[in-house]
Amino acid sequence: MADTLNIEERHKKAVPDWAVPFIRQHMANVTNLTYNWTNALGFPTDPSFPSIDFHLEQARMDGGRLLWAMINRIRGTLQCSGARMGTAMNGEGCDYLRGLKFYAYSAHEINLSQLLASFNFTRTNFDTDGIPPVATCITLELWQTAPTTSTSGSSSNITTNYYVRAFHWDPDSDGDPVEITWQIDGCSNEAVGVGGCSLKQFIQRSKPYRMMPSAKAYCANMDGLGNMTALSGGGVMGRAGGGWRGQLCLLWVLLLVVFMGCCY
Fold it and tell me: Does 233 lie in the same domain as 181?
């Protein structure tokens, strides 16, 4: 409802008479709380699991999947070009990748917040709380340095380094997109001379956000704390009393039930 009113305002449509500032503020507070909890920000500590980082776990199960889809596409592009192994791969998949200049995802605002959580950001819209505005965009760019040649004896080696840059595009800003590369946890400024986070460094810092060996196997691992029966889409169907990962995977369902009960 809060999102609907924001969109109507953005397009200069009349909002209902009941949507007075007092009500709108309460709706914004509930929305901010919902987004924080779906990213496990400000999550209450569960004394049963004192060693678990719920923010990391939630980011791994949500934004981590999108993050690694992007990383794997970058890897595939480099493999098809021969940049990683010296010899270009061939096949239908490579024919497709070689023809791309960019790859775009159409996403909901919650997906953007989850991707930011996989960068270990602690706010749901880069540097602010709440719902990312309509048309917000996050981009990852793959860059390469100019090739350098090193000589050893009679042989020469040509080296090209790759690095990643990330940007946050705010539709409410009249300025240029904001580069957020250096705010990403694990991307130090050691590569500042080439202008980005080295690809090797970016992949290394992203490893904690990858469900291994697969999403299904990861959520099925209850560490002896309970049982889980099956993974279905983005959530988990489990028996009552399932372990903490099963419970965390069910968070979306529980939140939907709670807020539907409040609003209907």
Answer: no
Does residue 205 sit in the same domain as residue 252? no
Number of domains making up the chain: 2
- The answer to whether residues 224 and 264 belong to one domain is yes
Residue 193 lies in a domain: yes
pLDDT in tens, the chain (264 residues): 877 888 888 888 888 899 888 898 888 888 888 888 888 887 766 677 777 788 888 889 889 999 999 999 998 888 887 755 455 566 667 877 877 888 899 988 889 999 999 999 988 899 888 888 888 999 999 988 776 666 666 555 555 688 899 999 998 888 889 999 989 999 876 544 556 888 989 999 999 999 888 878 887 775 544 333 333 333 333 333 345 555 555 444 444 444 333 333
This prediction's pTM: 0.74
Q: Position of tokens 């500590």?
A: 45
Q: SS3 of 162, please? A: strand
Give the DSSP letter of residue 175. S
CB of 58 closer than 8 Å to CB of 251: yes
State the alpha helices, DSSP H only, in the chain: 2-10, 21-38, 54-61, 63-81, 92-98, 109-117, 199-206, 215-220, 244-249, 251-263
Cβ atoms of 144 and 162 within 8 Å: the answer is yes
| Token digits of residue 6 | 């924001």
Query: Residue 198: helix, strand or coil by DSSP?
Result: strand
Local structure of 119: helix, strand or coil: coil
